[in-house]
Amino acid sequence: MATGTLHVVGVGPGSPDLLTVRAARLIEGASVVAYFCREGRKGHARTIAETYITEGTHELRLVYPFTTEIAVEDPDYQRGIQAFYDRSAQQLADMLTQGQDVVVLCEGEPFLYGSAMYLFDRLKEQFATSVVPGIAAMNGCWSQVQLPMTHGDDVLCVIPATLPEADLTRWLQQADAAVIMKIGRNMSKVRNALVQSGRMSDARYVERGTQPDSFSCPFEECGETAPYFSLVLVPGRKGIR
To answer: Could you report the per-residue pLDDT of 217-239, keeping only the tens digit for each?
Structure first.
């Protein structure tokens, strides 16, 4: 029996009409759709793609064993999350081996901090694969707030807020334009790094970009907490053309 194809499909940052035509077509025609979620939650990617999932589609929920309950630096986190991805990949492999095509939904762009790429890494040598790019959270956000980011030969730096404060500061000092992702519990650290690097006055906070409850403001006006789906935009130079 021929094996199935694994389709890793980016579904964009939040608005259902920001999927690509290819992504919508694959989801609508899928017999199996898999997606990550938390226990008791529908899952963000599943919510975005809901319009395109047809009746009778088999849905495979890949439930994270934990999200923020254990620090990333904790060895138990690394062991637990690796075991989770191993189990999830095996579930997909079982279906692919039976000849079923599987569509794995991933919010944003799959290869930019996307969980689906860990399944891709585990399965790409054994099965046929395709990857459908998605609109990333960052360009969904900078388009929504109408903030041009890179000008001329500006260098754009994508910085995870989980880095130590000194590293955040150093990258902000080096980059012409920057996007700070994975804000969550790191708001105070990000604030300090923006001040120390002299970039605070240009920084823009965007929460749940392109989603119905989206919110944006200058970072200076932000509170001390942020949800998972939030980021900070620091535009580059505004040279005369």
So the answer is: 999 999 888 988 899 999 998 76
